[in-house]
Amino acid sequence: MGGSGSCDCFSDEYLLALLGKGDEQAFTIIYQRYHKLLYVVAYKYLKNDCSAKDSVQQIFYRLWESRSVLIINMNLRNYLYTMLKNHLLNEIRNNYMAMEKNYELAQEKVEYEDDLLDNIEKKEIEEQLYRAINGLPEQKKQVCLYKLRGNLSNLEIANKMGISVPTVKTHYAQAVKMLREHFNKLLFMIYSFWLS
């Protein structure tokens, strides 16, 4: 790809044609043109700088890897947005499912928990979980933290908090419901974005 003019002078269609031939400069221009826009969208939903940057990098990696077989029936901007929407939906769905499983395992004291958590993004999932727990009403939050951090039984929690075991169970059940609604709402936002 010759010339030293501004990258704005090249149309997306022209750049895609060059990209299909393996033109690295065309790919670089596409990246420079759209990576900031995609980052803003990714950060809006992931709320994490590293995760947002990683998502954008993966989109452009896939674009480059599939360059020779690309069939795009829409403008490039919409195509990249669609790729990102699908990626974000999968990321949040996977994190939600892993978080929920992790939460259930913590309650049941499963012996192989550490081995399982080694296979998922433990730090990010725990951050999302504890952020959501901190938003719960005080007693529900304390019950959850005693279960997760202290691995305490319902009776032990009841003794520490000066409440009955049935009350502990009620707080815990309501907390789990609120956490599920919280993460379902996040998924709904992504679905709405994907369908827009």
Automatic annotation (TrEMBL):
GO molecular function: DNA binding; sigma factor activity
SUPFAM superfamilies referenced in this protein's UniProt entry, alphabetically: Sigma2 domain of RNA polymerase sigma factors (SSF88946), Sigma3 and sigma4 domains of RNA polymerase sigma factors (SSF88659)
One Pfam entry name: Sigma70_r4_2
A biological process term (GO) from this entry: DNA-templated transcription initiation
Keyword Transcription: yes
Key word Nuclease present: no
Family annotation (Gene3D superfamilies): 1.10.1740.10, Winged helix-like DNA-binding domain superfamily/Winged helix DNA-binding domain
InterPro entries: RNA_pol_sigma-70-like, RNA_pol_sigma-70_dom, RNA_pol_sigma70_bacteroid, RNA_pol_sigma70_r2, RNA_pol_sigma70_r4_t2, RNA_pol_sigma_r2, RNA_pol_sigma_r3/r4-like, WH-like_DNA-bd_sf
UniProt keyword terms in alphabetical order: Sigma factor, Transcription, Transcription regulation
Domain RNA polymerase sigma-70 region: 30-95
RNA polymerase sigma factor 70 region 4 type domain boundaries: 127-179
NCBIfam families the record matches: Sig70_bacteroi1 (TIGR02985), sigma70-ECF (TIGR02937)
UniProt record similarity statement: Belongs to the sigma-70 factor family. ECF subfamily.
Protein name: RNA polymerase subunit sigma-70
Lineage start: Bacteria, Pseudomonadati, Bacteroidota, Bacteroidia, Bacteroidales
